[in-house]
């Protein structure tokens, strides 16, 4: 079955809701009209009944002839219009209005009705009120009635007008709703066309954002933000691929050149050994680079898993600092470690945190000249622990600081040193995986301070 377009579904829902609303309005209007008619007629019946009661009680010696005269002459009663009958206790008709005779309505002997009611007599629909009225020592039965045909005809006309107007309004609503839905979806069609025109090779195009502050505007903004993230991701992948190719091309070219030179003529065992040792050293560097690239690739894909457990961070910092200390001794760098007296435990991956610390310590030694200083400290707060690695090295220019965690990025002052510029990227990923952050403060020629903050307990 072919799905119904959303434009048609919206129109049908709009039609259904409007139809139910109009029907409810029609029934409510008719009910209010009938209630208003009955209330008006009942008020007139009660007024006529009060006037009759007053006439009957005015004079105890009133004759029937005088009674007929007073009732016929009463302007408020309008005997030519009002249907009125009065019976004596014997059942004899004491008075019958001319309107009763003119309309050929038979005598109505009815039980007392304390409240007005509707009766039908010979095709005449009447609103009737019957009461017992004591007067002159006699209990009269008084019946007052008003024809409601005229009111019924008016109500029927209103009802007919409603049943004619409602279908017309519904037809207009279908056409109008379909047109309005089309206008509303014209913006979506434009967005679809613009999205289809975006080429994978060029994600710089953005959708036009509607001026109205509505869901369509938020949709366009959301899609544009998504396109910006995709563009950033593609650019990052392309840059990562280009940088990785560049980093791998250099050692491969160097290995190939050395091998070609080595094979041009016979060599002595010492020359072969020296060449193989150089090649092995280069292969170890390349292997380390590939390992870092694979780790970052797995991290981007969410496939790199860390194994969390309770870690004594005090012992880990002390052991890592001891492992990196020989690097500082070679350059005669002053080495200091400040640790709290009590153990500091966190929940994390011990190998990953060790790798993060080694990255920071290696950089501190690498960019600190001979005779400089490197310090490692561990501090705790109520909700986090902080490991700081500071040095008195060359420092980092302010323009470079925002980029030092980018992959393959190396500042101008560091390009003469070994490394692919991946260590800080890996360190930042490790810190984030532990719910922490890594920040840096640095001034050129004054040194740098890297600070890693990790939650004290994160299970």
Question: Unreliable segments (pLDDT under 50, ≥5 consecutive)?
Answer: 412-417
- Major beta-sheet overview: 5 strands, antiparallel
Provide the structure class.
alpha+beta
Shape designation: elongated
Number of strands: 12
> What is the helix fraction of residues, given as a range?
40-55%
Our measurement of the CA-to-CA distance between the termini, rounded to an integer number of angstroms, reads 51 Å
Supply Rg.
50 Å
Query: How is the CATH topology of the largest domain named?
Result: Beta-Lactamase
Q: Could you describe the 3D structure shown?
A:
The protein has 459 residues and is an alpha+beta fold. The chain has three domains: 6-155, Beta-Lactamase; 215-301, Helix Hairpins (Orthogonal Bundle), CATH 1.10.287; 309-455, Histidine kinase-like ATPase, C-terminal domain (Heat Shock Protein 90, 2-Layer Sandwich), CATH 3.30.565. The chain has nine helices and twelve strands. The protein has a five-stranded antiparallel beta sheet. A five-stranded mixed beta sheet has the order 7-9-10-12-11, covered by helices on one side. A hairpin with a 3-residue loop joins β11 (437-443) and β12 (447-455). The chain is elongated and about 160 Å long.
């Amino acid at each position: 079955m072919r799905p119904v377009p959303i434009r048609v579904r919206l129109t049908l829902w709009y039609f259904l809701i409007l139809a139910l609303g109009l029907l409810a309005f029609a029934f409510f209007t008719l009910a209010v009209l009938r209630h208003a008619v009955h209330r008006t007629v009942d008020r007139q019946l009660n007024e006529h009944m009060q006037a009759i009661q007053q006439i009957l009680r005015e004079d105890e010696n009133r004759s029937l002839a005088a009674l007929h005269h007073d009732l016929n002459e009463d302007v408020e009663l309008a005997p030519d219009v009002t249907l009125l009958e009065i019976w004596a206790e014997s059942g004899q008709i004491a008075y019958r209005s001319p309107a009763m005779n003119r309309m050929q309505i038979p005598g109505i002997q009815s039980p007392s009705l304390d409240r007005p009611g509707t009766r039908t007599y010979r095709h005449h629909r009447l609103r009737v009120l019957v009461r017992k009225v004591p007067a002159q020592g006699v209990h009269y039965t008084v019946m007052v009635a008003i024809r409601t045909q005229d009111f019924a005809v008016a109500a029927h006309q209103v009802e007919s007008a409603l049943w004619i107007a409602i279908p017309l309004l519904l037809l207009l609503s279908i056409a109008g709703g379909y047109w309005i839905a089309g206008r509303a979806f014209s913006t979506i069609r434009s967005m679809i066309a613009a999205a289809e025109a975006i080429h994978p090779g060029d994600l710089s195009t953005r959708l036009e954002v509607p001026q109205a502050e509505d869901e369509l505007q938020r949709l366009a903004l959301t899609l544009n933000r998504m396109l910006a993230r995709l563009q950033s991701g593609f650019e990052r992948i392309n840059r990562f691929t280009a940088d990785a190719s560049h980093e791998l091309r250099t050692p491969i070219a160097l290995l190939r050149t050395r091998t070609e030179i080595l094979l041009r003529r016979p060599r002595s065992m010492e020359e072969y050994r020296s060449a193989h040792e150089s090649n092995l050293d280069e292969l170890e560097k390349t292997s380390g680079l590939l390992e870092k690239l694979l780790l970052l690739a797995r991290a981007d894909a969410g496939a790199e898993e860390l194994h969390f457990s309770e870690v004594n961070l005090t012992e880990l910092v002390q052991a890592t600092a001891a492992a990196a200390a020989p690097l500082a001794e070679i350059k005669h760098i002053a080495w200091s470690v400040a640790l709290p007296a009590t153990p500091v435990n966190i929940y994390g991956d011990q190998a990953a945190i060790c790798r993060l610390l080694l990255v920071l310590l290696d950089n501190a030694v690498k960019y600190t000249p001979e005779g400089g200083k490197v310090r490692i400290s561990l501090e705790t707060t109520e909700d986090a622990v902080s490991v700081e690695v500071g040095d008195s090295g060359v420092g980092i220019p302010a323009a470079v600081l925002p980029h030092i965690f980018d992959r393959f990025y190396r500042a101008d002052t560091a390009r003469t040193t070994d490394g692919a510029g991946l260590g800080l990227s890996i360190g930042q990923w490790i810190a984030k995986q532990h719910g922490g952050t890594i920040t840096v403060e640095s001034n050129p020629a004054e040194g740098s301070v890297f600070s890693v903050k990790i939650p004290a307990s994160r299970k």
